[in-house]
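Look over both lines:
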Amino acid sequence: MSVRREPGSFRDPSGFIFERDGQLYRQINECYVETWRGVVKSGLYESLVTGGFAVAVKSAALSLKVNADAAEVIEAERLPFISYPYEWSFSRLRDAALLTINIQRKAMEFGFSLKDATAYNIQFKSGQPVHIDSLSFDRRIEGEPWIAYAQFCRHFLAPLSLQSHVSELFGLMLQSNLDGYPLPYTRLDSSSANETQRWTTGPYPYACPGQPWYKQKGGFCDGQDQHQRNAWNA
């Protein structure tokens, strides 16, 4: 039997995706299994799948586990096509953001909350956004703020704002900022009275969409139009 652990599924100690003989599975580790069983028992996950918010999963034999940390194994739905946030249009990133918010609202109704809000947890199935990380939930503590809110801002709010006010080219920066935009480096200068709002990125008012590093002095990316230059230099 051939087993391949998905290289992009490594950050969450709760579990990971792996492939065995052409089928996708998710190993759920001992440290998270009680929470996962609570999510299932509450009806939250079934509600998300029925509503088209999340991919379908089903129980699988524990003998399929990859290592001794496993407490449960589930079979995961394989999507026909995988895309990445830095490849998406503005409208797709917006749809993914709205789905994330709607999932958080639904989770709260069942006493849970999203513990992460990365754009990489969203894929598109038949043109519609769908959540793919079954282990993204934790029990909600009444009165506590949403723990994933900062990540939501880095992955959705900041890039959508920059794309809306400046240029859709800013979506390409998600390729070099895999954990989203650093929020201290993205701010709106509300003192600008111009028709186009003035943005500054980091300590320097020059940034090159799609490039991994901020420019420290003068210059714009090739191809930026005069309207964008005026907005940045205002």
Summary: The radius of gyration is 20 Å. Residues 90-109 form the longest helix (20 residues). Residues 118 and 142 are 23 Å apart (CA to CA). The chain has a mean pLDDT of 81.
